């Protein structure tokens, strides 16, 4: 994506808006005893990565497929990787366990194919959360619906997810992005829960942030080429206002924050989670941080510096984070950084 000059209105639109002090009415998120985040779809699948006591990697042989060029007529297959993101989040409080699907990847079959090869039954999911309306996070919804049948599944989504968007690079034909259809999703059995404000799920143990306060001086959002239809004209859409994150309070450790693309800005999101919950510690940050490409690489430095001050115990930057930002995070936080890969599970337990 390329930058192009933005006008005064666009600059004001993307400027930080102060949100001083703690939340007036902090949201109590019930601490959990255990959380496991399994990456179902990511941009990378590396079958040679090794696990640890807290990281379980997918098996090298995740399945087989017909391949007549081999003597047996079959070959070993791994997992699918694509420019998209999807994760399965399982939380446990005492003897009670719940599972949520967070985003659905790019293609109709990647999330369900990987789940099947990992032996994961997506029909156990209590709900699905959509981080935002971009197509690389919603493409697998049709596959999920096909696997579940038409049993109603609650989907938490920001009402801005239905926004028509395009990429309009100067000198090139505008590229219209696929737009989610509310009517089609409802017909597939998804029970839509549209919320601009924070939502508590699973007996109060999972927080969905809703719209994120933009408070940093350096996270200005998408470049001018990213546009949205406002009902009468195409306008620069820097904020992607429907961007939201998932937050869990791990007992004795602090917050676990999961992002889809992090369009609101990784630091904005973490600060917003702290402010909403009143929990000062960040235990883990996982998901897309959108620091790839010339429009975002200039903010890698201040982003990594701010994250370093937070001293997280686990950072798994994936999807749209980009290799330069991943390298910078790995250098600054060598004990916390873990390379992401489709099929990897991260298990975190209470202190």
Tell me briefly what this model is.
The chain has 351 residues and is α+β, with helices and mostly antiparallel strands. The chain is built from seven helices and 20 strands.
Q: What this model shows, in words?
A:
The chain has helices at residues 8-14, 110-118, 141-148, 182-187, 266-277, 300-310, 323-332; strands at residues 34-41, 55-56, 63-66, 74-77, 86-93, 96-102, 127-129, 153-157, 165-167, 175-176, 190-194, 199-201, 206-208, 226-229, 234-236, 246-250, 254-259, 282-288, 314-318, 345-349. The protein is an alpha+beta fold and 351 residues long. It has one domain (25-60, 74-349): Ribonuclease Z/Hydroxyacylglutathione hydrolase-like (Metallo-beta-lactamase, Chain A), CATH 3.60.15.10. The strands form 4 sheets. Strands 2-20-1-5-6-7-8-11 form an 8-stranded mixed β-sheet. β18, α6 and β19 (314-318) form a beta-alpha-beta unit. The protein is globular, with a radius of gyration of 20 Å. The N and C termini lie far apart (43 Å). 48% of the residues are buried.
